[in-house]
Amino acid sequence: MNSVVIDIDDTLVDTGRRLQAVWHELLGRQIPLETAETSNLGQIFLKFASVEQKAQAKEFQKRFWNILLCLEEVGIESLKLHEPLPFAVDVLQEWSRSFRIVYLTGRTENMRSLTLDELGGFGFPVENTELFMFSSKDFARAKGEDPSGPTLVDARSNLLSHICKNYSVMRAVDDYPGYFTSYKQCGIPDRIGILRSKKYTPQQYLDRGATRVIQNWQELQDDPPRLI
Question: Per mean pLDDT, which range of 109-113, 125-129, 196-200 is the poorest?
């Protein structure tokens, strides 16, 4: 079946305010929104954690992911801070009339119902779609539990390979440059980067395999996927 592969977080859904809230829960202090959106876990922890908190860095690393992946109630509650990116709902609803929408996300299986409820609540298509998610063990390395475990890029590449064996993928849309190598390797012809200009440059997407970079979903309103 002809399909499009779409990332969720920061591709369809703005997660900035939620990340800011997660850091407030962890460190007990307000982190600037732009810092939460553009810096990684290590950078923020190094800059904003107290001496006492830094002495427990591994515990904080694990709890960061537990909250983000809704393994703690506070993580579930913070989902209400998500917002859909402008024009994304209308574009996906239009595409879903001709193509199977395949959501590919780093969220874990325990978040499946939460994710479908969120997407549907925002107005994104959820009927006749597919949702591919990580397993909890995919985060063993990120949590510091198993240094030899798969990287998040490897885990996503494995899911993408499975998708491409079962679907004819015409287009992929994602906000993270590091995933475009996999999209290219899988032979997806149209690989679109949603630019996060405060964190990446257009060239970073193109260097890793994107065929083009756009500023926002409005640019795709009259640009449906094409059969090749």
Answer: 196-200
For tokens 């810092």, the residue is: 35
Q: Distance between CA 37 and CA 20 in Å, rounded?
A: 8
Helix (H) or strand (E) holding 193: strand 190-194
CB atoms within 10 A of CB 135: 12
pLDDT band at 148 (very low <50, low <70, confident <90, very high): confident
Q: Where are the domains of the chain?
A: 2-14+83-220, 16-81
Nearest to 64 by CA among 9, 152, 79, 72: 72
Classify burial at 94, counting beta carbons within 10 Å of its beta carbon; exposed 0-12, middle 13-18, buried 19 or more.
middle
Distance (Å, whole) CA 189 – CA 183: 9
Query: Treating both helix axes as pointing N-terminal to C-terminal, what angle do 16-27 and 41-48 enclose, rounded to 10 degrees?
Result: 40
- 2-14+83-220 homologous superfamily: HAD superfamily/HAD-like (3.40.50.1000)
pLDDT at 156 over 90: yes
Q: Which amino acid is at 179?
A: Y
Task: Calculate the CA 119 to chain-centre distance.
Answer: 13
Single out the residue of 162, 151, 189 nearest to residue 104, CA to CA.
162
Tracing tokens 């780093």 back to the chain, one arrives at: 106
Render pLDDT for 10-19 as a digit per residue (tens, 0 to 9).
Answer: 999 999 999 9
